[in-house]
């Protein structure tokens, strides 16, 4: 079964058909979904989805661009959510310098606090990093993040840097971008990274793969991503699906 490691089904884009869509996943070969929190509010709604659907797990965390909402009180609340038994990871956390708000300093502060939270509660991290390759890598290195474990989601940097993350012990999250006609860089990444270190993801409702580019994304599109990875690596579709499922179960410590 396909393990979808990154989706946002609490997004309003799914308000009309969320239940119908999620109920159709199993029949379409999607065995597991991690619904990822990106703010305090979406951490709460992610956990609600995980409580409702046995095959949905949650990640609890605050996205770099939302970190202005964090303070000691909200951070204590977040920590409590992270202890929930269906919270599989702390995330998505990281750095996003594409947007200038909040300041890099504030983003770094809460990235580091959430990293240490993950270490404390012994759960892996889901990293969001955009236009911040060096700072992200430096912070993870400084915090010995290999011991914490995690995935760089929707990976967007060079193949060389991907291998640095792999050496650190991290997984690389591959989604719809690999199917784009201008996705040459991602193809190099998929060539370089061993299949044992790749996770399948969508970032739904965003980043729909070809041939559905531009439309609302859902986990039902993951076969296009898996097929592309199989093509690039010269292995079978089934091997991509089964190996990435094992990878995700290992990272999120989900027993079969
Ligand atoms: Ni996301």
List key phrases describing it.
9 helices; single chain; TIM Barrel; binds nickel (II) ion; alpha/beta; 41% helix; globular; 256 residues; eight-stranded parallel sheet
User: Beta-sheet strand percentage?
Assistant: 15-25%
Question: Which ligands appear in the coordinates?
Answer: nickel (II) ion
Shape: globular
CATH superfamily: Metal-dependent hydrolases
Model regions low in confidence, pLDDT < 50 over at least 5 residues: none
Q: H/E series, N to C?
A: EHEHEHEHEHEHEHEHH
Q: Could you give the count of β-strands? A: 8
Strand order in the sheet with the most strands: 1-2-3-4-5-6-7-8
Largest sheet: 8 strands, parallel
Please, could you describe this protein's structure?
By secondary structure, the chain is α/β, with parallel strands linked by helices. The protein has a single domain, classed as Metal-dependent hydrolases (TIM Barrel, Alpha-Beta Barrel), CATH 3.20.20.140. Helix content is 41%, strand content 17%. Strands 1-2-3-4-5-6-7-8 form an eight-stranded parallel sheet, sandwiched between helices. Helix 6 packs parallel to helix 7 and helix 8 crosses helix 9. The structure holds nickel (II) ion. The site of nickel (II) ion (NI) has 6 residues, from loops.
């Amino acid at each position: 079964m396909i393990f979808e490691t990154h989706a946002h089904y609490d997004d309003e884009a799914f308000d009309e058909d969320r239940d119908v869509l999620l109920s159709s996943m199993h029949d379409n070969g999607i065995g597991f979904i991690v619904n990822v929190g990106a703010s305090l509010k979406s951490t709460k709604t992610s956990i609600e989805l995980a409580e409702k659907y046995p095959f949905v797990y949650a990640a609890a965390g605050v996205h770099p661009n939302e970190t202005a909402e964090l303070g000691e009180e909200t951070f204590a609340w977040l920590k409590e959510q992270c202890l929930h038994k269906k919270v599989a990871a702390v995330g998505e956390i990281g750095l996003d310098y594409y947007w200038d708000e909040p300041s890099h300093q504030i983003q770094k502060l809460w990235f580091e606090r959430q990293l240490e939270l993950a270490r404390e509660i012994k759960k892996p991290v889901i990293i969001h990093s955009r236009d911040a390759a060096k700072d992200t890598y430096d912070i993870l290195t400084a915090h010995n993040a290999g011991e914490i474990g995690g995935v760089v989601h929707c990976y967007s940097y060079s193949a060389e840097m991907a291998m640095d993350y792999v050496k650190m012990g991290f997984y690389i999250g591959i989604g719809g971008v690999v199917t784009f006609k201008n996705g040459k860089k991602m193809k190099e990444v998929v060539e370089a990274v061993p299949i044992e270190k790749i996770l399948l993801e969508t970032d739904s409702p965003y980043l729909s793969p070809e041939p559905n580019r531009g439309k609302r994304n859902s986990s039902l599109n993951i076969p296009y991503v898996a097929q592309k990875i199989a093509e690039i690596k010269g292995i079978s579709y089934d091997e991509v699906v089964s190996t990435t499922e094992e990878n995700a179960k290992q990272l999120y410590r989900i027993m079969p």
